[in-house]
Amino acid sequence: MATTTATVSINSSDLTDDTLSINVSKQCYKAGTTLGLDQTTGLNRLYVTATTQFDPFPVVKGATNAAENGKVYIANLSTTDTEYITVGIGDAVIGRLYAGDWMWMPWSPKAQHVNDIEITPSVATGMHVEFMAIHNFANIYPDSADS
Amino acid sequence: MATINATIAINSSDLTSSPISINNTMTMMKAGTCHGLENTSGLVRRSFTATTLVDLVTVGAQMYGTPTASKANKLYIKNTGTSTTDYVDILIGDSENDSDEELLATAGNSKITLGRLYGGDWMLIPFEGTTNNDVMVAPSTAEATTVEWMLFFE
After folding, report:
1. Distance of alpha carbon B151 from its chain centroid, rounded?
2. Is residue A27 part of a domain?
3. How do residues B35-92 score in pLDDT, each as one tens digit?
4. What's the number of domains chain A is made of?
5. Per-block average pLDDT, block size 10, for chain A (147 residues)?
6. B144 with B101: CB under 8 angstroms?
7. Of A56, A75, A73, A74, which is closest to residue A140 (Cα–Cα)?
8. Which of B11, B73, B125 comes nearest A5 by C-beta?
9. Residue B29: which of A69, A98, A105 has the nearest Cβ?
10. Cβ <8 Å between A103 and B125
11. Is A66 a domain residue?
12. CATH code assigned at A79
């Protein structure tokens, strides 16, 4: 069991007349327990040079993790205001992460191709993207083709 | 123009053999610009007492304004409960009336589960806001469950 804490602070002094201050901190637990998530993909850093859609966390055929409580972090490290990545899940678009944006969400992967997370860069001129999953999924790697 | 900063910190001393410490701050800008988002739904608090799937954040015109689709909108959601066993499923799709989860654009079944928010869990995601992209919740219990959310949009 590991202890992983995810904290968010959202602040603004001028979005509304009164100051906005949201601060939340929560440990990442396995589904329905107080046991910490104990696996991670590590923080991946990718330099993408095509507008081709890709899966940062491919779901392997036959994997059954629909009842699990993984967490996903994705960040667009570009510094060019107009560059973005479109993040989707299955056939749905979640939204766009423009330069400097990040996201954090739960993820319960179902069967392959149902709710795979997908990233589509807006430009082919190159941008850095970071992503990481913290999870307790089973069968997340394909069987070896060597035999 | 407003300045809205959102900072995430992910820390663990024992998830891997070396400590993890990720800190990232974004200033919520309008799409493709260096000008801050100016509109918000405000922090909405909503309670549920059934396991029925419901629209939480609906696209299109709302009381708080009309978020422009395919921009740099951001959505924050938190399950304010404390339960480690009760949760809300978070889904994206076109209608709370659809019966089944979508598989490769099956007509009429157009919602997809992202994942679960247990008590105290939070998420911050971009919000596409196009037609058929409502954000929905499905509580796991009929016991009172309260969810807070806030949309930042242009």
Report:
1. 8
2. no
3. 999 999 999 999 999 998 889 999 999 999 999 999 999 999 999 999 999 999 999 9
4. 1
5. 96 96 98 96 97 92 86 98 96 95 96 88 98 91 76
6. no
7. A56
8. B11
9. A98
10. yes
11. yes
12. 2.60.120.10
